[in-house]
Write a structure and sequence with these properties.
The protein is mainly beta. Helices cover 0% and strands 44% of the residues. It is built from no helices and 45 strands. The strands form ten sheets. The chain has an eight-stranded antiparallel beta sheet with strand order 2-1-5-12-7-8-9-10, with no helix packed on it. Strands 3, 4, 6, 11 and 13 form a five-stranded antiparallel beta sheet that branches. The chain is globular and about 50 Å long.
């Protein structure tokens, strides 16, 4: 299924442009789609002269880049405002974005702000007419509207301001348009899915040649991708469990796959490589050699950059298309943690040097680091307000300010916290501890809402369905489904050995999970 973006031009006094269809994984220059005159109607004319509407499909983690080159000529100094509005796919949520190109000043200035959440204006000074400026937007955009209007003073001596948008490029990329495209579902590692309703019945199981510690990911067509300690990456039919292809690496595959918008499967191996595989065939697109094993699961940024950690202590940023290294950052010891990406592009990751790091996604420079009391193998999860939640071997779950690294709260369990937190729709943080409990914590305060005893160690990370059900595996050989509000058990499913992998939730609610009994299970 190919997701599409449709662009339609609606304007006063201008003929509508032809419908333009844009594959979401590509960047397309839509050409001179907006042009016209703003006529003098008095001291201020705030009527929109030109409106250009286009639709962006709602994806699990889409990215929108709007590129604008703007040309105007003025007889009388006047301001021309270019307004970009984005209506979020989430019901009742709306954000407006504003572009202003001010020709009343000697040097052109482009400013952008998010009026929906009150973000301060950001100024891009010295933009000459016709120089493309860029807007990078968040995921979840459904409908966009572009308006051109005159906002400055004019007079009869200045009959009009001519304008032309010379370039309008639209890119939608990042992760695949699927129910569960990577470890813990999305770039922020929330572990919150879109499927619901599993009842605990076996749908199918697939036998691998060894332990299945890797957590499954789901492609846009429902294909389930998973690694195994038998050195293979598998592509399985999500409906039947039939094998589509298997790719042999040089050693164990404990990293979990991440699926790009074009279907590329990114995954690490203990053979020292990160691989990019064709999702349809399993063919290698590229591989990047790292100086040690890769247990960390890749994260894919909005621009296609792939971030991953290694047991050599480095975090890498790789070009998703070519595999070329963009940057590397060295922590003090090995990395098992998987990166999370904040809405501003910050990369968060833990290390066994006891620290949680916040890195600039573009440059790899350190923004801050937070010292815990022991190893950080847990992968960070980023809340809607930017709070970073992460566990540590010191037995604590931490809530950190995503901008500064300052601790908001910590919650102490009685054993290691290797599990990675998941965040429910109401902000509740779900996390396991090796004290054999799964905890539900208030995301704002850290207060415990409830805890559930599994009877054995909790090394995996929970996943949350759209209805609030929390799914998790345990070393007591079971997969559990719990009521997210109360902690009451809905059902449990027995595998043949310990469950160390984390669940993935399909669009129809099917729960996919691996076990150390050498099977991958689909539970419906």
């Amino acid at each position: 299924m190919r997701a599409l973006a449709v662009l339609i031009l609606v304007s006063a006094g201008l003929s509508a442009c032809a419908e333009i269809v844009v594959p979401v994984s590509q960047s397309v220059n839509l050409g001179k789609v907006v042009s016209g005159n703003l006529h003098s109607l008095g001291s201020d004319d705030n009527d929109a002269e030109t409106v250009c509407k286009f639709i962006v499909p709602n994806q699990s983690s889409p990215f929108v880049r709007l590129t604008l080159g703007f040309v105007a000529t003025t007889v009388n100094p006047a301001s021309v405002e270019l307004v970009f509005k984005a209506e979020m796919a989430t019901s009742g949520s709306f954000k407006a974005r504003g572009f202003v190109h001010d020709y009343a000043t000697a040097s052109d200035v482009l400013v952008i702000r998010d009026t929906g959440i009150g973000t301060a204006w950001q100024t891009f000074a010295g933009q000459a007419p016709g120089t493309p400026a860029e807007y990078v937007g968040p995921g979840g955009v459904m409908q966009c509207e572009l308006e051109v209007r005159q906002t400055g003073p004019s007079s009869s001596a200045a009959p009009c301001t001519k304008f032309e948008v010379v370039e309008l490029g639209l890119t939608v990329g990042g992760l695949a348009d699927s129910a569960w495209p990577k470890f813990h579902h999305d770039s922020r590692n929330t572990g919150l899915g879109v499927g619901q309703g599993a009842t605990g019945a076996l749908k199918w199981k697939f036998k691998t040649g060894d332990v299945a510690d890797s957590s499954p990911a789901i492609g846009a067509d429902g294909t389930v991708y998973v690694g195994s300690d038998d050195d293979y990456v598998y592509a399985l039919d999500g409906a039947t469990g039939g094998e589509k292809w298997a790719f042999k690496t040089g050693y164990l595959v404990e990293s979990s796959p991440a699926i790009g918008a074009d279907g590329t499967v990114y995954i690490g191996s203990e053979d020292y490589y990160v691989y990019a595989l064709n999702g349809a065939t399993g063919d290698v697109k590229w591989k990047f050699r790292i100086g040690d094993g890769v247990r960390s699961s890749p994260a894919v940024a909005a621009d296609g950059t792939v971030y991953v950690g290694s047991t050599n202590g480095y975090v890498y940023a790789l070009d998703g298309a070519t595999g070329a290294m963009k940057w590397e950052f060295h922590t003090g010891f090995y990395i098992d943690s998987s990166p999370a990406i904040g809405t501003d592009g910050t990369v968060y990751i833990g290390s066994t040097d006891y620290c949680v790091y916040a890195l600039d996604g573009a440059t790899g420079s350190e923004k801050w680091s937070f010292l815990t009391g022991w190893y950080v193998i847990s992968s960070p999860a980023v809340g809607a307000d930017g709070t970073v939640y992460v566990g540590s071997y010191d037995g604590n779950v931490y809530a950190l300010d995503g901008a500064t690294g300052a601790m908001k709260w910590k919650f102490q369990t009685s054993q290691w916290v290797v599990s990675s937190p998941a965040i429910g729709v109401d902000g509740t943080v779900y996390v396991g501890s090796n004290d054999q409990y799964l905890y539900a914590l208030d995301g704002a305060t850290g207060a415990m809402k409830w805890k559930f005893y599994t009877g054995s160690y909790r090394g995996d990370s929970p996943a949350v369905g759209a209805d609030g059900t929390v799914y998790m595996g345990s070393w007591d050989d079971y997969v559990y489904a719990l009521d997210g509000a109360t902690g009451a058990m809905k059902w449990k499913f027995q595998t043949g050995f310990i469950v160390n992998a984390s669940p993935a939730i399909g669009a129809d609610g099917t729960v996919y999970i691996g076990s150390n009994d050498h099977y991958v299970y689909a539970i419906q």
